[in-house]
Amino acid sequence: MNENLHTLRCFGCGARIAGREASPDFRCAQCGDLFEVEYAGWGQRQGHNRPNPGALKWLWRERRCSSEALDQSGVWRFRELLPILDNFGNAISLHEGNTPLYKLKRAAKALGIDQLFAKHQGMNPTGSFKDTGMTAALSVARERGFEWVACASTGNTSAAMAAYAARAGLRSLVLIPEGKIAWGKLSQAMDYGAVTCQLKSDFDGCVRVLTQIVKESPIYLLNSVNPYRLEGQKTPAFEIAEAFDWTVPDHLIVPGGNLANSSALGKGFKELHELGLVARMPRISVIQAKGANPLSRSFAENNGERMEPVEAHTRATAIRIGNPASWRKAARTIKDTGGWCLDVSEAEIAVAKAELGTEGLGCEPASAVTLAGLKKLRAEGKVVANETVVLLLTGHTLKDADYTINFHRGTLLADDEIAGHRPDIAILQRNAVVVDATPSAVLATLDGFSG
Ligand code: F0G
Predict the structure, then answer these.
(1) Could you give the 3-state DSSP secondary structure of residue 56?
(2) Residue 217's CB: how many other CB atoms inside 10 A?
(3) Is residue 256 within 6 Å of ligand 1 at its C-beta?
(4) Which of 34, 83, 120, 182 has the smallest number of Cβ neighbours within 10 A?
């Protein structure tokens, strides 16, 4: 069985190479830019490799009832659109994908928007959207005979990589910034047996060290510069389109860290469009934390043409990244789809996260930037009332329980950060109280909440 139809195309100079010719750091030998996976003939109406749209829609839906392991994956269910393996039997899956799309009624009402949804990628096997990319790239690593895989991470990539490597019987090496990732994520890497090195550096420093390591040792790099990661991460676009019966929402809002995921989703919608499965693309907007906002600055200063790295600081540790590798890809996605790139403050993130909580949807702080960003876009008139908007929630709330507890205890934010948000925060805070073990003492705590 040979399903492998792809080449790698340099995003910068357009050079094409075979998948196995990529250098260990996935940088183009001509210009140093990153690669994208390309499938010959998909862009041309009469291309002979072009899949049939109607047949695909039927097949993908049928697979949801199948008992085959590959069909039960929300990534490999769409395998006709990610022919990256020589043999799909080599795929390593944890039943990722097929994540829920929730309607957000309260937030929609508060914002005066008709249709607001959250696509919750935190509902993946290791609790983040990284699983969809990891099943794809780690399967390639295994097919190509690597024994070791590695990543630098703010925590979620390492958790996903460690889990998938364990399933595949591969060894994994994790580099994380010491003291700057959420404990839940660190515990996962340990649990799944990764060799975990906490470097006295930030995420960008971990990337620099790992780039040297993979050039010197036969270790397969699984950061999002690896273009196969994005092939898996594009599949939520297919799920969203399918959920809307192959129409697309008007606007998709995505958090931005290393800036790969926004372009992966853009690629997913673009391929659906090119292949005739959907009639148009949604706008894709990227939201960063104010303290880690190199792309949003770049858009404000030069319309996303040049980017200056920043020293990153945010409590949304997943996106604490100052020198994002895939910024050019993200900038093109934003521009091609007519989206925006904004940043939001620490208090705006915390409030948005607690508001999502009141709808029964927990998420990581990094995911909550999407709602905080939507509020700004709505206030600026960039989102109008009759639009259908989807927020991409990227991580599970239990990844970073400390953040949530600190918010509700009132110890998360400094006084100067809270200014202007005090009333919102007061309404949302639900600190746990210690009371006597009697019914009357417990019932007395309800007094403040009646009416
Ligand atoms: N949300 C969460 C929960 C993340 O973990 C990340 C990135 C992002 C958003 C941003 O996605 O990098 O594609 O723009 N986490 C990486 C990691 C960097 O190492 O886990 P991006």
Answers:
(1) helix
(2) 11
(3) yes
(4) 83
CA-nearest of 317, 296, 281, 329 to 128 is 317
Q: Which residue has the tokens 């006597």?
A: 436
- Asked whether 129 and 391 are in contact (CB, 8 A), the reply is no
Q: Work out the number of other CB atoms within 10 angstroms of the CB of residue 14.
A: 11
| Amino acid residing at 17 | I
CB count within 10 Å of CB 420 equals 10
Q: Ligand 1 pocket, 255 CB below 6 A?
A: yes
Q: Ligand 1: distance of its center to the CA of 319 in Å?
A: 6
Nearest-CA residue for atom 12 of ligand 1 = 258
In the predicted structure, residue 444 carries a pLDDT above the cut 90: yes
Q: Is 259 in the pocket of ligand 1 (CB under 6 A)?
A: yes
Which residues does residue 113 pair with via DSSP β-bridges, in sequence order?
none
For residue 127 and ligand 1, the question of a CB distance below 6 A is answered with: no
Q: What is the pLDDT of residues 248-295, one digit of tens each?
A: 999 999 999 999 999 999 999 999 999 999 999 999 999 999 999 999
CB-based contacts of 58, cutoff 8 Å, min separation 6: none
Query: Does the reported pTM lie above 0.70?
Result: yes
What are the residue ranges of helices labelled H in 33-129?
53-63, 105-111
Nearest CA to ligand 1 atom 6: 318
For residue range 131-187, list pLDDT tens digits in order. 999 999 999 999 999 999 999 999 999 999 999 999 999 999 999 999 999 999 999
Q: What are φ and ψ of residue 186, in 5° steps?
A: -60, -40
Closest CA to 103 of 286, 249, 285: 249
- CA–CA separation, 77 vs 72, rounded Å? 7
Using CB atoms within 10 Å of the CB of residue 391, give its burial: 0 to 12 exposed, 13 to 18 middle, 19+ buried: buried
CA distances from 433 to 14, 304, 429 (A): 60, 48, 12
Question: Residue 187, SS3?
Answer: helix
The finding on whether 226 has its CB within 6 A of some atom of ligand 1 is no
Q: Which residue has the tokens 């200063």?
A: 301
CB 235 within 8 Å of CB 268:
yes
How large is the C-alpha radius of gyration of the chain?
22
pLDDT confidence of residue 46: 64
**Ligand 1 in contact with 266 (CB < 6 A)?**
no
Q: Using one digit for the tens of pLDDT, what is the confidence trace for 50-97?
A: 788 999 999 999 999 999 999 999 999 999 999 999 999 999 999 999
Regarding the beta carbon of 99 and ligand 1, being less than 6 Å apart is answered: no
Give 419 Cα–ligand 1 centroid separation in angstroms. 28
Tokens 């399903």, residue located: 3
Instruction: Please report which confidence band the pLDDT of residue 45 belongs to, taking 50, 70 and 90 as the band edges.
Output: low
Atom of ligand 1 nearest to the CA of 223: 19
